Amino acid sequence: MSPSTALRRMLVVFLLLVAAAATGSGGATAAPQATSGTATPDRPRYDVSLRSDATGDRWTGRQRVSFRNASAQPLREVYVRLWGNGPDGCAAPAVKVSRVRGGTAAPLTVDCTALRIELPAPLQQGRRATVSFDVELTVPDRTERFGREGAFRFLGNTLPVLAVHDATGWHLDPYASSLESFYTLAGDFRVTLDHPTALKVPATGRTATRPGAPGRTLTRSVARKVRDFAWAAGPFRTADTTTPGGVRVRSYWSPDTPAEGVRINRRDGATAVDALGASLGRYPYGEIDLVMTPGFPGGMEYPGLVLLGTTEEGGAAVHEIAHQWWYGIVGNDEYRSPWLDESFAQYSSFRLMGILEEQCSYGTSWPDDEAALTNSMAYFSTHPGSFRVLYSLGPCALWDLEQTIGSAAMDGLLRNYARDHWYGVSTTAAFKRAAQAATSKDLGPFWDAHRIR
């Protein structure tokens, strides 16, 4: 692709992101049990069966979650995050859970995004337990990651997922509308979606369909070692291709999506998944779905599925596919360290498009003295628009690191870092250690200059 085309596309995405910025709400809930340094519950398995209404507006069914206690401390409870309730909180909950089995449910907290389930007995280290519950999902009437656009439904951050407990306690941070506040451990999903045959249903994982009741189709998806599960539903047009690297790219778009934009996204998506796989480690999921509509605000990433607002010049396909590595494969706590996925994905996409030097030649000032790349969403949610530094100063800091240690060393650093945190969790401290180990230069002044703390 040409740098000028890529630049225009990324500018469109950036402006959409700024326009979508809003202040998060709610507060964290303190952990009631003893802390341990090991992240738990781990190795979760989610078994889900849902049935939609005629339009895909409402989905009901049952979800079963099995998990292991990785911590040396007995696990007396688990928390389930209902992120779909984030935008409206308890005023209009879009995700409802009932008939909990395997534990005792408490009232919802953190603006109805956190459900505590007390286990019937303390779960010892290495042992597994299971909870299950009925789920009712109602798609909100807004064009967002959990929302709709015309006849098309987006169900991102919708399925209840386990919260994480580690040395700091339970991570029960509030929903952040301007970016993400999600933090989960990699697990396995087996999801069956029963829907009208007229609706195409792209979803996380490897999907297959078979006939259901008259006029209905069962879409079954299996996704291993992913952090979340998302899907969409609507009368999409579709096309499939397989990249030279063997990844199946399945494209879905609404009929009013600009045809040239669809073509560009399909091309860029296929190119990016192979190129990033070559530099960071082979894409492990075999399939990725591109879901394109003209009105979706910017883009949003999920394991094996991305939502793309698409103009004649395409969309944020390269950036969102970079998130398959930076957030998906190499996880992080998106509330406390959003730069570890957003800045890294932006850097990887700019680097792939060959526009890092051009993008970083303008120079962007810090919005205030408190701003830092490593700030949490507690800062960014209360400083509207300030998160732009994650998309501008963040990738440019990584480009400056590349200039400091050399391109070959940067290649090795990123590939080795991804390998060492594959399906795990990245932290700023771990990346700083890895970067310092990749060079004989003292990087202390570098971290200070770029406010990487």
UniProtKB/TrEMBL annotation:
Q: Does the keyword Protein biosynthesis apply?
A: no
Cofactor note as given: Binds 1 zinc ion per subunit.
Q: Quote any Pfam family the record assigns.
A: Peptidase_M1
Q: Where does Zn(2+) bind?
A: H319, H323, E342
Bias type Low complexity, positions: 26-41
The cofactor named in the record is: Zn(2+)
Renumbered to this chain, region (Disordered) spans 26-50
Start and end residues of each Peptidase M1 membrane alanine aminopeptidase domain: 318-448
- Which UniProt keywords are given for this protein, alphabetically ordered? Metal-binding, Signal, Zinc
Gene3D superfamilies attached to this UniProt entry: Neutral Protease Domain 2 (1.10.390.10)
Q: Which InterPro entries match?
A: M1_LTA4H, Peptidase_M1_dom, Peptidase_M4/M1_CTD_sf
> What are the transmembrane regions?
none
The record's GO molecular-function terms, alphabetically, read: metallopeptidase activity; zinc ion binding
Hey, what's the signal peptide range on this chain? 1-30
Q: Is Zinc included in the keywords of this UniProt record?
A: yes
What PANTHER family does its record include?
LEUKOTRIENE A-4 HYDROLASE
Protein name according to UniProt: M1 family metallopeptidase
